Each structure stands twice: as structure tokens, then as C-alpha cells.
Write a sequence for this structure.
């Protein structure tokens, strides 16, 4: 459910999410709008598919890759001494006044998400729930 919320809020304010991505100083500015849209859509769609148990293995594998990239990007910027928002859950700031900057907290949280997604990626199926006996390899 968190991936749905996170992806949905990023889609609602793509311009802000693009600014957050730019703060990481990793991607060329030309790629930032496309990456912002792709990350937002992936989070939203994979979150929905995980909730309804549709193509769970594929969805969790995509989210594992994204988590690994998020962890690496935050770790890299922490090591470089950069301070900025992580871009994970903007609703924390808007609704609760909590500012979430990159640091050990978000990195540990994303590692926890990675660990929680791992068994789903390894043990779930890519079955189509409404078609009994059908599974994508």
C-alpha cells in the first residue's frame, strides 16, 4: 500500500519530484523528467499489482531493483555530504509536517522494504488470478 501512496503522490506533483531527483546530482537534467515519470508509474503500478496479487514475482522484482537504486543513490549522497529531501513520502511533509531528508533512517527503511520484498520475488508466482492454472514463466 505504501508503494501505491508513494507513486500516486509523485504523479500528482511530478514537477516537485523532478526537483528532488535533481538534488541527487546523479542524472543529466535531460533525463530527469522521464525518470520521474517512470519511477512514479512503476511504484504505483507495482504497488497495485502486489496488493491484488497479479504478477507478484515480476512486480516485486521491479520494486527490488528500484529499492536497490534508491539505497545506492541515498548512500552515495550521504557519503558525499549532500543534504536534501529523499523524495520518498512527500505526504509526511505536507500532512504531518515531517521533513524526510536522506540519511540513515530512509536508507535503513529501504533496506527493510528490500528484505520484505525478497521472499515475494523468490517464492510468489506470476499467476493470473482469474485464469486458474495459467502462469507466466
Amino acid at each position: 500500500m505504501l508503494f501505491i501512496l508513494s507513486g500516486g503522490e509523485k504523479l500528482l506533483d511530478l514537477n516537485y519530484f523532478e526537483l528532488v531527483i535533481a538534488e541527487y546530482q546523479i542524472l543529466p537534467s535531460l533525463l530527469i523528467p522521464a525518470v520521474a515519470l517512470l519511477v512514479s508509474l512503476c511504484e504505483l503500478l507495482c504497488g497495485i499489482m502486489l496488493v491484488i496479487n497479479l504478477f507478484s514475482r515480476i512486480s516485486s522484482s521491479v520494486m527490488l531493483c528500484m529499492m536497490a537504486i534508491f539505497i545506492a543513490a541515498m548512500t552515495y549522497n550521504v557519503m558525499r555530504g549532500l543534504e536534501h529531501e529523499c523524495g520518498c513520502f512527500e505526504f509526511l511533509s505536507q500532512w504531518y509536517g515531517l521533513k524526510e531528508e536522506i540519511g540513515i533512517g530512509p536508507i535503513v527503511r529501504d533496506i527493510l522494504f528490500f528484505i520484505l520484498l525478497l521472499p515475494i520475488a523468490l517464492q510468489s508466482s506470476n499467476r493470473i488470478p482469474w485464469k486458474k492454472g495459467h502462469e507466466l514463466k
Observations:
- The CA atoms of residues 70 and 100 lie 14 Å apart.
- The chain has a mean pLDDT of 86.
- Residues 2-123 form one domain.
- The chain has one domain: 2-123.
